[in-house]
Amino acid sequence: MTTSYPLAWPTGWPRTRSQDRRDGRKLWSHGKKPWTFNAARLALSDELDKHEASSVILSTNYELRLDGQPRAGAPTPKDVGIAVYFVRKGRQVVMARDAFDRAEENIRSLTLALEAMRAIERHGGAMMMDRAFEGFAALGAPGQRSWRAVLGIAEGKPVTKAVIESFYRDAARHAHPDAGGTNDQMAELNAARDAALKEIGNG
After folding, report:
1. Cα–Cα distance, 121 to 117 (Å, whole number)
2. Residue 128's Cα: distance from chain center in Å?
3. Separation of first and last alpha carbons in the chain
4. Residues 127-168 pLDDT 10s
5. Long-range CB contacts for residues 117-123, cutoff 8 Å, separation at least 24
6. 48: nearest Cα among 101, 8, 10, 94
7. Domain map of the chain by residue range?
8. Quick one: which of 50, 104, 103 has its CA closest to 79?
9. Of 56, 70, 147, 201, which has the fewest CB atoms closer than 10 Å, so is most exposed?
């Protein structure tokens, strides 16, 4: 299962050595001040909304409060890399960044990359953008489960949209935070439903 904490670095993505990371505060500012974690996170969320992304999970080594901000007084983790998992056009996608000294700048760098990809689409390059996103198809973090495993649908069992929705509703009764589940469980469940519907041609 892909988690927001701790960092679930995507399979196959190279890591930046700590001594090779850069100080991103010299590159970007937010209102003439360095980006804060929360401001960078909200800007990324806004950009993902413009891409019509769903089932978004921002994975970091920062333990976050319910409002999405790092817990007060928590030490800065040694590994400040970030990975964002989401579903775009029915496909699981992941992008990751760890080239900068602070998670804030890694989030900002990734946000600007997404903005640039959207600019390609605005200038008539929708197919080019789709092909670019193919390179970000999520291979899966360690332990990531298939949509059948998440929904509880046995291998080989025929599925229809109605079957998928029925299993989804049953699983959501336990996975939803209001029922004792977690946001991560619901995100995994939503992604599984999207993947299942896509596979049968209803996504």
Report:
1. 7
2. 22
3. 22
4. 777 776 766 766 544 456 778 888 888 877 889 999 999 999
5. 117/51, 118/47, 118/50, 118/51
6. 94
7. 18-134, 147-199
8. 103
9. 201
